[in-house]
Write a structure and sequence with these properties.
Length: about 200
């Protein structure tokens, strides 16, 4: 069955969600969708947790049942153009991605999270200044450090793990370790092709 989500909410307070319950509108939605990025400071998990507490307080009669309503992170991303006010360098982007996915894995109430773009792109192809650099790969499809951070987190790879694997496309959802949530890239994104597509970690 289809789920109806309210959002995406970006004002980092609980007033709107509490208003929905006060208006007896809780039967009209199945999930809340959030724009939870705090720019260079990562994801506003304290806000996510506060909203989760409200959902928990309003759960059904079965008090042992987890939140009946889901939380979705609509999109999160960090541009790698340091000239932008919210821009970060590629290694900073990779760290934020890894911290975000680790945080999502700890929060069973967050069922979906969508990264903004698999590749950089130009909003106007003929204008180089229109570049959106928030992708996991550059416009040439070469992976950034953030691509590898996303990939390793999605596969549950740690620095001490001795694993070998074949990469799969980052389209659709990849389950996060210890969670039913998915770390997702847009289905229309193009899969990067490089010599590192088959990688062995030891």
């Amino acid at each position: 069955s289809l789920k109806v989500a309210v959002g995406g909410l970006s004002k980092k307070d609980s007033e709107f969600l509490e208003g929905l319950y006060n208006a007896k509108a809780d039967n009209s939605f199945d999930a809340i969708s959030l724009h939870a990025s705090k720019g260079k400071n990562g994801i506003a998990f304290e806000w996510v947790d506060r909203l989760s507490s409200i959902l928990y307080l309003h759960r059904g009669k079965d008090k042992d049942k987890p939140n009946e309503k889901d939380i979705w992170i609509s999109d999160y991303y960090w541009p790698t153009q340091t000239t932008l006010s919210d821009g970060v360098n590629p290694m900073h982007q990779a760290r934020l991605i890894r911290e975000t996915l680790d945080g999502l894995a700890e929060r069973l109430h967050v069922k979906l999270a969508f990264y903004g773009a698999l590749t950089d792109y130009r909003r106007q192809e003929s204008d180089s200044k229109s570049l959106d650099s928030s992708g996991l790969c550059g416009v040439n499809l070469m992976p950034k450090p953030g691509y590898y951070a996303f990939r390793d987190a999605a596969f549950g790879i740690t620095d001490t793990a001795a694993l070998k694997y074949n990469l799969t496309p980052l389209t659709g959802g990849l389950p996060l370790p210890g969670n039913n949530a998915c770390a997702c890239a847009p289905p229309s994104a193009t899969r990067p092709r490089s010599s590192s597509e088959r990688t062995r970690r030891s």
